[in-house]
Amino acid sequence: MANSYKRIDAHLSSLGYCTRSEAKKFLKIFEVFVKDKRVFDVSLKANHEDIFINNEPLDAQTITILLNKPSGYICSHNDAGSLIYSLLPERWNRRNPKISTVGRLDVDTTGAIILTDNGDLNHKLTSPKSDVIKVYEATLAEPLKGDEAQIFASGELMLNGEKKPLLPAMLEIISPTLVRLEIVEGKYHQVKRMFAAVGNRVIKLHRVSFAGFQIDDLKEGEYKFIEL
Predict the structure, then answer these.
(1) Which single residue of 21, 41, 142, 187 has CA 20 to 30 Å from 173?
(2) pLDDT at residue 154 above 60?
(3) Element (H, E) at 29
(4) Any idea which residues carry the catalytic annotation?
């Protein structure tokens, strides 16, 4: 855990409540208490858990959430268009370090995505050695031929432009044009490329779970805090 004993202006700034230069004004406008005493001195040092704003505890020092991503949102801090970070509280986007997505989902792909400001956790979950399980539901343009599950499970499927075959993936058939696919890799457009390799096309893609975390209880655009 990060050191929680800090100057109040530095701590509020790192959590996105205000900049350090705005801290003095922030303490005048909002009731900032350290334990049971209201404070106005921005240089005062205090522990994270002892600071309250308008009788509410501070946001967590490190945030990790599971979000149900809607279609049309981009997993980027800088691109034009609707950014996934606009679904979060405004002050979270001013945190330092920044909250970032763990991997990405395409703009038209929906479902489970984790966001965190824990850089070590982000690196761990995106490492090729992590073998994080990702489960997708894919709607296909054409009915299945019947051999796709065997091909995906073989560990021999080569995608165009890749030097190594994919690791085995498990395909569950829901209907001739609706499937559930479990993979442990995260190659670029992997699910879409897998079905393209067997002569089909994904017309709708939804990630049901990531690293075992389900989004069944989340509406589009909603999120919940998780621990990993």
Answers:
(1) 187
(2) yes
(3) helix 23-29
(4) 106
